[in-house]
Specification:
CATH topology of the largest domain: Rossmann fold
Low-confidence stretches: 1-14, 16-21
Order of helices and strands: HHEHEHEEHEHEEHHH
Structural class: alpha/beta
Largest sheet: 7 strands, mixed
Radius of gyration: 37 Å
Number of helices: 9
Number of domains: 3
Number of strands: 7
Oligomer: single chain
Strand order of the largest sheet: 3-2-1-4-5-7-6
Length: 330
């Protein structure tokens, strides 16, 4: 059973252990059954990480990237295909064994609790930190922050029922832990196309007043947005209640619009029925004329056969008849 989130004493409290459990196994069974859609090389996951790669390149234009917890290397593969010097590490030997040959040499088995061997322009870690054993989490954060100045992090703040989620924390817990390393949340860039809780952190040294200014500006914008949405929702609920109760001038106007549309629908239906009837009559008349012309042509052919002297006259009549049939068929 996973423990609950630890209470934070202040903003600089480190990420505390959420519970203890045996280290999970990340083998074939895990990737087949524990990721919703089986985690394998298929259109869903290739498309998902392709979209993430597009967003990263578009927003951050990185020169080198480490995917910390790369699993089967799909993001490494997608970034590499887009011209980024991308690398990956993961604790699962099985996952690394499934990496595509195009980036196989760029992905390796390693624990994030061990120092990284180089620096990167950007480190990405998507749904990984909640899997880190609590005793290792501070070392992992220090290692990530020691190898970059830009960190794109997504770690679930919920889903406590997942057996491998050893260290689920609220977003502010991770922000506080990263602030100790000199990393602050970027309040302008939005990475919610990855997950609703995906956050971009950068190493910054700035006066406290500027940090407060940025956070307060973001908070005020979100409050205004929430207030406007709430007002609009309340107004629509009140309008719906008035319409349902038949009050005000909204109901008569809407009813008039509905009546007008019903009338137009009936008119167009009658018009369609009339046109169908005209079309049927025209087809019938064409069939009748065609039958007459065929009978006349047959009679002319018999007349030619019986009266040799009438061949030229009958032939001319037959040609005229065939010409009329051709016109009636157009």
């Amino acid at each position: 059973m996973l423990g609950r989130l630890a209470t934070m004493a202040d903003q600089t409290t480190s990420v505390e252990p959420a519970g203890s459990a045996a280290a999970p196994e990340y083998g074939a069974d895990y990737y087949k059954h524990s990721c919703g859609i089986p985690y394998e090389r298929n259109d869903h996951w290739l498309g998902f990480f392709g979209d993430i790669a597009d967003g990263i390149v578009r927003s951050l234009r990185p020169t080198s990237v480490l995917d910390a917890g790369c699993a089967m290397g799909f993001l490494v593969e997608a970034l590499h295909a887009r011209g980024v010097d991308a690398w990956g590490v993961d604790v699962s030997e099985y996952a690394i064994s499934q990496v595509h040959e195009s980036v196989r040499e760029r992905c390796s088995v390693a624990s994030l609790a061990q120092p990284l061997d180089r620096r990167y322009d950007l480190i990405v870690s998507i749904e990984v930190l909640e899997h880190i054993p609590p005793a290792e989490i501070d070392a992992v954060i220090a290692n990530l922050c020691g190898a970059t100045d830009r960190l794109l992090l997504s770690t679930s703040p919920e889903d406590f029922g997942e057996a491998t989620h050893l260290n689920v924390q609220a977003p502010e817990a991770w922000s506080a832990a990263l602030a100790r390393e000199g990393f602050l949340r970027d309040l302008e860039l939005d990475f919610s196309f990855i997950t609703p809780w995906a956050t971009f952190y950068t190493r910054r040294e700035e006066p406290l007043a500027e940090t407060v200014r940025a956070y307060d500006r973001s908070l005020w914008r979100l409050r205004r947005e929430a207030a406007e949405v709430r007002r609009a929702l309340i107004a629509e609920q009140e309008r719906a209640a008035r319409i349902e109760a038949g009050e005000g001038d909204e109901a008569p106007r809407l009813q008039r619009e509905l009546d007008s549309r019903d009338e137009e629908i009936l008119r167009l239906r009658d018009l369609l029925i009339g046109k169908d009837a005209e079309l049927g009559a025209a087809h019938g008349r064409i069939a009748e004329l065609d039958a007459h012309s065929r009978a006349f042509a047959h009679a002319a052919q018999r007349l030619q056969a019986r009266v040799p002297g009438a061949m030229r006259l009958g032939g001319a009549a037959l040609r005229r008849l065939q010409g009329r049939r051709g016109q009636s068929g157009d």
